[in-house]
């Protein structure tokens, strides 16, 4: 699984309140791609609210800004 897909999974887990699982997944993302950051990896979304929801989940999971 690619680091980005793992990051999205971590964000979903975080938004569901499953923070331990989210942080474990985020740690694996950073192990596979040490330079990962939300700012550089965040894709463009048509609707800003969707982008903000994903960004919030990524940060809750413990991925760096």
Would you kindly provide a written description of the structure presented here, covering whatever features stand out?
The protein is mainly alpha-helical and 65 residues long. It has one domain. Helix content is 68%, strand content 0%. The protein has 4 helices and no strands. Helix 1 packs across helix 4. The model has no long low-confidence stretch (mean pLDDT 96).
Essential attributes:
65 residues, mainly alpha, globular
Q: Between the first and last Cα atoms, what is the distance in angstroms?
A: 22 Å
| Average pLDDT number | 96
State the low-pLDDT regions, or none: none
| Beta-strand residue percentage | under 5%
Taking all Cα atoms into account, the compactness measure Rg is 11 Å
Secondary-structure class = mainly alpha
Number of domains: 1
The number of distinct helices, counting runs of at least 4 residues, comes to: 4
Helix content: 55-70%
Query: What is the molecular shape?
Result: globular
SS elements, strand count: 0
Largest sheet: none
Helix/strand order, N-terminal first: HHHH
Topology:
Blueprint: H1 3-15, H2 19-32, H3 38-41, H4 48-60
Helix pairs in contact: 1-2, 1-4
Question: Can I get a quick summary?
Answer:
By secondary structure, this protein is mostly helical. The chain has helices at 3-15, 19-32, 38-41, 48-60. 68% of the residues lie in helices and 0% in strands.
């Amino acid at each position: 699984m690619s680091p980005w897909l793992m990051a999205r999974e971590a964000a979903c887990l975080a938004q569901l309140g499953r923070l331990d699982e989210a942080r474990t997944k985020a740690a694996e993302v950073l192990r596979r791609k040490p330079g990962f950051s939300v700012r550089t990896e965040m894709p463009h979304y048509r609707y800003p609210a969707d982008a903000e929801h994903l960004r919030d989940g990524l940060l809750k999971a413990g991925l760096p800004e």
